[in-house]
Structure formats: structure tokens, C-alpha cells
Amino acid sequence: MAAEVPPGAALELHRVVKSFGPVIALRSGSLTLHPHSIHALIGENGAGKSTLVKIMAGLYRRDSGDFRLHGEPVDFTSTAQSKAAGIAVIYQEPTLFPDLSVTENIFMGRQPVNRFGRIDRRAMRTEVEQIFRRLGVTLDPDRITDGLSIADQQILEIAKAISLDASVLIMDEPTAALSGVEVERLFAVARSLRDEGRAVLFISHRFDEVFALCDTVTVMRDGAYVATTPIVETTVDELVRQMVGRDITELFPKQDAVVGDPLLEVEGLTSPGIFHDISFTVRSGEIVALAGLVGAGRSEVARAVFGVDAYREGRVRMLGKTVPHRNPTEAMRAGLALVPEDRRRQGLVIDSAVGGNITLAIRRRLAKWGLITTGMENRAAREWASRLEVKTHALDTVAATLSGGNQQKVVLAKWLATDPKVLIIDEPTRGIDVGTKSEVHRLLSQLAGEGRGILMISSELPEVLGMADRVLVMREGRITAEIDRIDATSENVMFAATHSSELNS
Ligand SMILES: Nc1ncnc2c1ncn2[C@@H]1O[C@H](COP(=O)(O)OP(=O)(O)OP(=O)(O)O)[C@@H](O)[C@H]1O
Ligand SMILES: [Mg+2]
């Protein structure tokens, strides 16, 4: 396979420009991908990475600039053309059809037919099984995709790309929702694709991944190319400087807050088969991290506490008063807020304006005076949009057109606008760039400093260790350790996340 790839660049973009009405998404995008290479593309939220990807995918047409594939000029007007030319794309947001099976999704739009002209289901299934075996995945090819975890959806997207047998494989933040084991598996697949002579593009906000996987890195800033460097010749500091144009002094600006009275008390929460006997307290001024591997049941606990999901036994109290079971409205009234993990689907009204999204959860309170005026909405929205540095030129911008990271900030703003006493936040900085990451951390620290309690679910150990006053570790639906800030190390947190409970301190 490797021998068929012509020498030289597999794909070249040079000074590509793309605007959407008044918004210039790409001022000058340049990127050269080579066969036998895993190339990283990094930059802040809104830098133009996904826009560049969508041009390669044929989803957008560039306004100007050069685009070549294996040396030949190309100009895709559809995703089908890009696919046919050998470019496979795994998008930042999974694009699966929930009512179709795993196999049907993988072959969407290009089902093989047998000699009778019928869709060859057996051939499809056999191929899917082969791909899954290669990926080390145990997913039922016949199940409906609705209800799959984000990690599994991502695996499906990867399987889809592999089945295309593409010479260029583009992955836009594929690891954002994967656990450590799953990331390793994905890396192994990416490396084997590289060894076969394919060009792989990898977009990520995680430097450790970029350094572990990639051989070359291109940095973008404000819609333009900044630099391309062999990975061995650069450092995290250097890349950060290229990305944000300044040094970032503190990644985890944790302030010491005065820890006060209990705000949220959870006692013996149990949902059979999902989580068992979960008890913990979040006090005023405190950041409590819920650590563990993906699948340990952390998000499920958060959803039950906030009343989105049911639980069978146990009790949730806010300020001493029982929070009614399965009633998010009452939970909000009691002072709880939940920023969910899957923000695009659970947190954002994608077709609504940014401003409306931010004020969605506080409409009721704003409406206390009879009617909501646009002015009132805008004031509330503007405050949080600016505190979180949502990069959009207007609050009436439709949420769907924001970059992935900025969409996340909108969801965060929406819940912060409810002025919660306890904020439950699931993976606060997933998909958020370094600069904004430290802003989000600063904000969490500030919120705690104001006397709020924060329950933070995080799969990133540095974030857990950097931000938490106390770490609760979950494994297989149970809390296996509770570790104070001064005692918490990556070793003891990881140990509790992967072994049974001997570590309780
Ligand atoms: N369809 C669109 N309509 C209007 N503006 C758009 C559209 N698509 C992207 N943009 C804007 O273009 C800019 C670049 O967005 P893009 O999604 O490429 O960023 P990104 O580098 O992928 O960021 P992230 O790290 O957050 O995913 C953003 O300001 C975004 O709001
Ligand atoms: Mg993006």
C-alpha cells in the first residue's frame, strides 16, 4: 500500500481563505501533509482548525487559495468527492444516525451490493467485524447507535474512516471523549495507518498526546498559519507561545478558599448496576474532584444528583433540605447546576442564538417581572459571555456556527448565569484550548472563593491534582478512595481508579 503513494506531499493547502458573511474563519490557512506521517494541527478555540478540515472534507468551499491532493489541484464541492479522492474525516462532533445500526452507520451512503443488486449485509458485517477486531473493539455491529457513549461513537467514526481505505485520514479532536485505554488503542491504529504509508492529521488540545503521537506540528492562530516544526525540535512552551502569542504563567491558578459549611450532601445513592452507596459532601468554598476512568459511573452520579436520572436508594440534600428525586427544576431551585459532559447534545440549543442559549436556564427568574425583554437577556448573556471570553462577534450568532470550544463556553455560561450554590461540572475543559483552560480554572477557583461549592468530574489528572481540595475516586460504580489535596498524587489517584479500595484515607 505504501508504495502506491506518490512521493512528495499527500495534501497541500496554501493560503486558503474562507469567510462566512462578515466572519473571516480562515485568513490564510496553510498545511502540508506527507505520507508516512502523523501531523498535529493545534491552535486556540476558533483558530480555524475545523474550518480547514471542512474544506479538505468538501463540506465547505474555499474562497481562494491553493488546494492540492497528490500534487493535483482539487476543488471539492461535496463530501462524496473528497471521500472518493481518499480523504477520510473524523469530525469533532460525531455525525451518526441514531436510528441506524452500527454497521449501517459505517457504510452510510455507500453500501456494497451483491450480484442481485441488493445491499450485501453479510459483506458489510464481515468487514465491520474485521475492523473492530483490528481496533480491539467489542461493539455489537447490529445494535442501534442511539445510546452509545461518546467514546463508542468516536470509535464508530474511526471505523467508518478506516473502512474507506483513505490515503489521508483527518481526526478532529478524536480523543476528547476517550479514556486512557481507548486513547492508546486509537494511537496504535493511527501508527499502523502511518506505517502503511497514509498521511494522518491529528487535532488535539492535549500536548502530551501531540508529543506522544505526532512527528510534525503546525500551529494556527486567528485563522492563519503560524509555523510548522518537527516535533523533536519544539517544546510545549514554544508551541503555547506560537498559539496564543504570549506566555501562560499559571496553568492551575488555584486560590486557597475558606472551606465552610456543607452545601451538598449525598448519602448512600444507589442505582443498581450503575452506582452503589455513593456518599460525599461538598462544602462552601471547596472544589471536590470526582476522578476515575471513563465508564466508572461519575457522570451517572452527577445526573442522578441533579435529578436528570433516577436512583433507587439514598438521599440528596442541599443546605440541609432534601432535594426531590428526579426533578431538575427543583434541583435548580435548591441551588444546583449541572454542566453536562456531552455539551452539544445535552447543553446547547444548536439552532438558537448564543445569547438565548446563555439565558435559557434563567428565563424563569428573569420572567418574574412579567416579561423578558431582549435588553434584560442581553445583559445577563453579555456578562457571562465576556467573563468566559466566548469568541463571537455578536450574541445573536447561531450557536451551531461557533467553534467547538466556544460552544462549550456558551453552555458553561448558561449554567453560571443561574448563580448556583453548587456547580457540578462534567469535564470542564474538554476541547478547550490552553489559554482558555487556565481561564476556566481561574473561574472555578473564583466561584469557590465566592463561597460556592464545585463538584468537578475530570479525567485529566493534572486538572484533578491542580484544582481539587479533595479527590473522590470512583471505580466500577463505587467510591474507592477519598484523598485530600496534600496527599493526592497521580499514583494514588490512578491506583484507586484501577484497583479495589484499600486506599481510603
Ligand atoms: N458556518 C460558520 N458560520 C459562521 N462562522 C463560522 C462557521 N464555521 C466557523 N465559523 C467561525 O470561524 C472561526 C473558526 O472556527 P473553527 O471551528 O474552525 O475553530 P477551531 O480552531 O476548530 O476551534 P476549536 O478548537 O474550538 O474547535 C470561529 O470564529 C467560528 O465562529
Ligand atoms: Mg474545531
Write a concise keyword list for the protein shown above.
single chain; 505 residues; alpha/beta; Rossmann fold; 3 domains; 6-stranded mixed beta sheet; 33% helix; globular; disordered N terminus; disordered C terminus; binds adenosine-5'-triphosphate; binds magnesium ion
Could you characterize what this model shows?
This protein is an alpha/beta fold and 505 residues long. The protein folds into three domains: 2-96 and 148-244, P-loop containing nucleotide triphosphate hydrolases (Rossmann fold, 3-Layer(aba) Sandwich); 248-335 and 421-505, 3-Layer(aba) Sandwich (Rossmann fold), CATH 3.40.50; 344-419, no CATH class. 33% of the residues lie in helices and 24% in strands. It contains 18 helices and 20 strands. It has helices spanning 49-56, 79-84, 102-106, 121-135, 150-163, 180-195, 207-213, 236-244, 298-306, 328-333, 343-346, 354-359, 363-366, 374-387, 404-416, 434-449, 461-467, 490-498, and strands spanning 11-20, 23-33, 37-42, 64-69, 72-73, 87-90, 168-172, 199-203, 216-221, 224-230, 262-271, 275-283, 287-292, 313-318, 321-322, 336-339, 422-426, 453-457, 470-475, 478-484. Strand 9 and strand 10 (224-230) form a beta hairpin. Helix 4 (121-135) crosses helix 5 (150-163) and helix 14 (374-387) crosses helix 15. The protein is globular, with a radius of gyration of 23 Å. Mean pLDDT is 86; it is low at 1-6 and 501-505. Adenosine-5'-triphosphate is lined by residues 20, 23, 25, 43, 45-51, 92, 391, 401-406, 433.
Summary?
Helices cover 33% and strands 24% of the residues. With 505 residues, the chain is an alpha/beta fold.
